[in-house]
Amino acid sequence: MTTTYSDPNVTPPIGQAVPLGFQHVLAMFASNVTPSIIVGQAAGLAFGSPDLIFLIQMAMLFAGVATLFQTVGIGPIGARLPIMQGTSFAFVGVLAGVAATLGLGVALTACIIGGVVHFILGGFIKHLRWLFPPLVTGLVILAIGLYLIPVAIKYAAGGAAEFQMAADSFGSLKHWSVALTVIIVSLLIKFFTKGALSNSAILLGLLAGYGLAFVLGMVNFAPVAGAGWFTQITPLPYGFEFNLGAVIAVTLVSIVSAIETVGDASATAKAGAQRDATDEEIAGATYADGLGTAVAGVFGGLPNTSFSQNVGIVGMTGIMSRHVVTIAGLIMIVCGLIPKVGAVIASMPLPVLGGGVIVMFGMVAAAGLNMLSEITMSRRNMIIIAVSLAFGLGLNLVPTAVQYLPDTIRVLATSAVAPTALMAVILNLVLPHEDAT
Prior knowledge:
The protein has helices at 14-42, 50-71, 92-102, 104-121, 134-156, 173-192, 195-199, 201-215, 222-226, 244-273, 279-298, 308-317, 322-336, 339-346, 350-372, 379-397, 407-413, 417-430; strands spanning 85-87, 304-306. By secondary structure, it is an all-alpha fold.
């Protein structure tokens, strides 16, 4: 008799469950730690510094904690489906801008409050979905990817003087050879292998680039030697600093993130059990998302969200067991409690990270385009896309254009994601639909 794993409460044999848990970790590991590195760098943290290592540790630790909120659950919190949580790219644009101008204390405070709002959304998320059709959600995700791509190119070319890279070596062949190695190896593994190997393509590409960077003398292991063996967890490590503009910006992205989690919960139920997600599962997934974000923010972690690439693993393996993803969450918690793991990641030269994020951020933009492909490209929809992107990305590229606005509104206006989302929602509500001809 063949055992079926389409029931989330059924656990495969331990010899199968543990490797599957590691597979979920490998698929999301690089994407999980990258946002913390980018936001930390924007805040002025030196590469390999204890503060940056700390942010990386918190990203791993609270990705694991948030995953347990989803898979194990607490009362109505958690979908109790195999949904892997991780640090969200959606917030990077907003948080990097806030951290650069107002500091990490303001950014993390906004994360805490945004997480609480996100949690509250769980009670009525199903009633808000109409505000975020594929036109709006796709536009926001596309804006996130387009905003981040220049960051990826900057990293691949060697960072910049402020990131402790010599200005005259920016764009050197040495830097680009490392970044291109990451890209080429990632693509080869992704498209010419299968299973766990294919799902770990980005991580293995980063390892290949890391190896080349080591050979070229670009790796400094001093922070690894100096790192401890156990993470000290401190509430509000950067204080509690309220800024209305930062809170509004993070909250707007939280709403989009909540809608994305609804999609992931629905996709997981379809992929693993060929059924629709229940209202309780969707609400529980949203509650867990918000709670994970708020708790992470209290201890220095960035917002969490469901990871879509792990939905693909459920569909590929056909194993719906939430307990497999619980194992993955426990692995992330263990990694987060060992600072030497974070120090190894923080010792990664910027061109190595740049090669990885060129692929990752490009995929974010491509995911947005994929969602937009579901809509009809009428004149109305094209105008919404054009105006929303023009305002969102344009004001971010030329922040002095709104330099005389009050601080709160200026933070919102130049965050790229928030103005794109706000403009897209408003235009989608007020512009009349064209009559079919």
